[in-house]
Design a protein that fits this description.
globular
Amino acid sequence: MTSPLIDAFNVVSLIAVFVLISLGLHFTFGMLGLVNLVHGELLLIGGYATYAVAELTGNVLLGMLAAPVVAGLVGLAMERGVLRFLYQRPLDSLLATFGLAVIIRQAVQLVYTSSPRNVPDLLRGSWLILGVNIPRWRLVLAVLAAVLVIGAWWLLARTRFGLRARAVVANPDLAETTGLDVGAMRAGLFTIGAALAGLAGGALAPVSTLDPQYGLLFLVNAFLVTILGGPGSLTGLVAAAAVLGGSLALLQFVIPTVFAQILVLVIAVVGVRLRPLVVAALAERKSHRTAVAAE
């Protein structure tokens, strides 16, 4: 039998993974509305950047610091070179990002072959907490996910950049008439999303196996979390990650992983269908409270 603390930590750990793989997509798909199928390959770039720098320098931490830089620069080049022409064109952006994803995946396979690669664990071993051994790096991943969510909220809600970015997302034409550089703001948001994807890819590399299909393992779950959470909603993204990640972790205790993933997909589909009803109910409840307070 396993300890309840270990079970609870496994749930939190998987929720943190769902947050990490989805946070970058929150910027590129959730806010910009770009159907970003290259998100998985940005995770892949982060993972292999970590591996390459660690192999070259012997320093895994340096590799993880390089991962968001490399992924961010690649994302900026893609946005400026191709994707900036495809906003508000979902089918074209889907085809373009699919093509970019294939190019990146094949380039990685050409350089590194299809052989699996491993990134050393930065913090090997575990910490003894309340009499239970908790893997150190998985605990770091949970803390990192929380820090990144808080940082993203602060950037979007408390900075001038965030104010301008939200204005561009809400109404780009009106934002442009006020003198905002819509293209630059979109490029900034996409670069941030790509950098966050690269950071997630690098951070998850020690607990995963790197190969050219690495990003595909996370892509579907990232989209499920972002869609279920609602476009542009950081709070919704965290809630969706908690629902889907927590459900997957709990279901894996009682049924095989494959069936658990199928059920999580069903939960996501049902959740997407019910979300408008829940949002409408909450809005009605809030308006009722406001009316009662006014009286």
